[in-house]
Design brief:
Order of helices and strands: EEHEHHHEHEEE
Function: Binds to the 23S rRNA.
Mean pLDDT: 87
Structural class: alpha+beta
CATH superfamily of the largest domain: Ribosomal protein L9, C-terminal domain
Distance between the termini: 48 Å
Radius of gyration: 18 Å
Strand content: 15-25%
Low-confidence stretches: none
Oligomer: single chain
Number of domains: 2
Family: Belongs to the bacterial ribosomal protein bL9 family.
Organism: Brooklawnia propionicigenes
Keywords: Ribonucleoprotein, Ribosomal protein, RNA-binding, rRNA-binding
Pfam families: Ribosomal_L9_C, Ribosomal_L9_N
Largest sheet: 4 strands, mixed
CATH architecture of the largest domain: Roll
Number of helices: 5
CATH class of the largest domain: Alpha Beta
Helix content: 25-40%
């Protein structure tokens, strides 16, 4: 089965790549999760758009990643969350909420899959969150969870 990847898939390729995979892997994993689209003449024209979007979001090299790390570590990120009277959250702060808060605080657009917390954030207060920019560069972003 020939597919066009719409997102980076480990051990397979990056967004915009045309890959040949077994039918079951494509039909049962890649297509339902939106990681790929079927390849045909019509969708082949979308490859250039996918590659342009990937290049706009991609970190060019380690020096560029170091600049972004410095920018991220200086941000004052606040995440509003619903809490009870004792300050515990109803649920936990998700990586998607963290990515949106970083963008709102004036930072760059960060992929939610690059954001990792040491443990789930379930209380208000200050927390440190890791953002993996490249294999060699990781930013530690201070996040303040406040009651909404």
């Amino acid at each position: 089965m020939k597919l066009i990847l719409t997102a980076t898939v480990d051990n397979l390729g990056i967004a915009g790549d045309v890959v040949e995979v077994k039918d079951g892997y494509g039909r049962n994993y890649l297509l339902p999760r939106g990681l790929a689209i079927a390849y045909n003449r019509g969708t082949a024209k979308q490859i250039e758009g996918i590659k342009r979007a990937r290049d706009a979001k991609q970190i060019r090299d380690n020096t560029h990643a170091a600049e972004i790390r410095a920018q991220l570590e200086e941000l004052q990120v606040q995440v509003p969350a619903r809490t009870d009277a004792s300050g515990k959250l109803y649920g936990a702060v998700s990586a998607n909420e963290l990515a949106q808060a970083i963008k709102k605080a004036g930072g760059p657009t960060i992929d939610k899959r690059a954001i990792k917390a040491a443990k789930p954030i379930k209380t208000t207060g200050s927390h440190l969150v890791s953002v993996k920019l490249t294999d060699a560069v990781t930013a530690r972003v201070p996040v303040e969870v406040v009651s909404a």
